[in-house]
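Rotation project, supervised by the postdoc (A.L.). Task for the rotation student: set up a whole-complex structure prediction and record inputs and outputs verbatim in this book. Inputs entered:
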Amino acid sequence: MRLFLDTADYDEIRTAVDWGVISGVTTNPTLIARAGQDHETQVKRICQIVGDVSAETVTERKDDLIVEGRRLASWHPNVVVKVASTPDGLAAGKVLAGEGVKINVTLCFTVNQALLAAAIGAYFVSPFVGRLDDIGEDGMQVVRDIVVAYRAQNVQTKVLAASLRHPMHVTEAALAGADVATLPFTVLEQMYKHPLTDAGIERFMADYRKTQEPQPAKR
Ligand code: E4P
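Outputs recorded:
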């Protein structure tokens, strides 16, 4: 399973790229607003350092979405155009996919929406786990079901588990067979953490330091 960062914060992306563990980024209008940068400038900047950078459309009608999607895709070859799981979003996504643009169908909450994403030749489908959990549903079960349905139907669209809120979501997405998990920087940091790792380092360092101390002469 590939790991993506779910942020538009350049410094976070730079850090995670330097750690060597992420191979893509997902953004949305909320994350772009939080980064406080112009959309085009920020996406182009991110594309300089990592591939598969999802940039979201913000128009609603098919024709407008096609024009907008072409504009986003023209920014950089690494751009993946996000369209929402609506009739217009999917219709525009199909036209764009036919032109060779990579499409990420976002705001997916059901297996049927994922089947529609597959039908238009989407590159990614993004089931939103946390937002389903927020309304008392089992978001990860939707990811599991999409993976099973896609395998049964030999679908090429990749399952990108999104709206992940904690490290267990990442583990569960991997066990579900998701192709990608996109996670906030804080969750990526948490993935490294274990108290036994910290305690082990402390002990090894203490023992190493002992070997550097002058040893009493042997008789
Ligand atoms: C990813 O593509 C989504 O934009 C993101 O994961 C949404 O996460 P949220 O539900 O925590 O806002």
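Student's summary: The pocket of erythose-4-phosphate is lined by residues 6, 26, 28, 106, 126, 128, 130-131, 162-163, 182 (CB under 6 Å).
Supervisor addendum: The first strand starts at residue 2 and ends at 6.
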